[in-house]
Design brief:
single chain, Leucine-rich repeat, LRR (right-handed beta-alpha superhelix), LRR_dom_sf, eight-stranded parallel sheet, two-stranded parallel ribbon, 2 domains, 11% helix, alpha/beta
Length: 235
């Protein structure tokens, strides 16, 4: 099911009857979608559903995942609003139920006119079988966050994107930079790493980190001082 090309930022709510579409395999939408539970039929399972894009990640979505509603989901795109910023690490734990998930995209939505809003750090464990992970709308990452990602042995593609493109004002007035420290042996299967619009200033690679890296894309990360020397010795 493809819902076209509307660009509304206000979420729309699907009727509960959507769970009657037992043969539905793909659910795509450019704008945010709020899922509704079907409380009269708690055992509804969408066995054929393989991908959902632009889903608002809230308690309802987390509850449906925990109930095993999407056992064969392989691709998932989630949108997290500012109102859930304090709850999303706990909500994300429900993704552990998606054992077949291989592609995950999480977008943190910033409110208009609030400038360079801070984002929660990545500090949760993502599903172990995820091979492609995209995080957009983040402003910084702690050492614990990047190392948690580095411990995912099946991760092959990682894309990290900030919320807005930086300009000269961002670079010299009031912007908070951060360091990206990858411990030794981290990201053992990572082949593609992309950073876009991040305020990363120093990037360090521990011994043996990112040994399988084949493609590195850095776009509009103007605070970055230099590339790690270890990159030049990768096989």
């Amino acid at each position: 099911m493809d819902l076209g090309c509307w660009r509304l930022s206000v979420p729309i709510s699907f009727p509960a009857q959507i769970w009657k579409l037992k043969h539905l395999r793909h659910l795509y939408a450019p704008g945010p979608i709020m899922l509704r539970g079907h409380y009269s039929e708690p055992d509804v399972v969408m066995w054929n559903l393989q991908s959902m894009i632009a889903i608002v990640f809230d308690k309802q979505t987390s509850s449906l995942i925990n109930k095993g509603t999407f056992p064969n989901l392989k691709k998932l795109g989630l949108q997290i609003s500012q109102g859930c910023k304090d709850k999303w690490p706990k909500l994300l734990q429900s993704l552990q139920e998606l054992s077949n998930l291989s592609k995950l995209r999480i977008s943190f939505k910033r409110k208009l006119f609030e400038g360079s809003m801070s984002r929660d750090y990545v500090r949760v464990a993502f599903p172990p079988n995820v091979r492609k992970l995209t995080l957009t709308g983040i402003s910084c990452m702690t050492d614990e966050g990047i190392n948690a990602l580095g411990n995912h042995t099946k991760l092959q593609i990682l894309r990290l994107t900030g919320g807005i493109r930086m300009n000269s004002f961002d670079l010299y007035f009031g912007s908070h930079s951060f360091d990206l420290n990858c411990v030794a042996g981290g990201f053992p299967q990572l082949q593609v790493f992309q950073m876009t619009c991040l305020r990363v200033e120093n990037w360090k690679l521990g011994n043996g980190a990112m040994l399988c890296l084949r493609s590195l894309i850095i776009d509009n990360c103007d605070m970055l001082n230099d590339l790690p020397l270890e990159l030049w010795s990768l096989p």
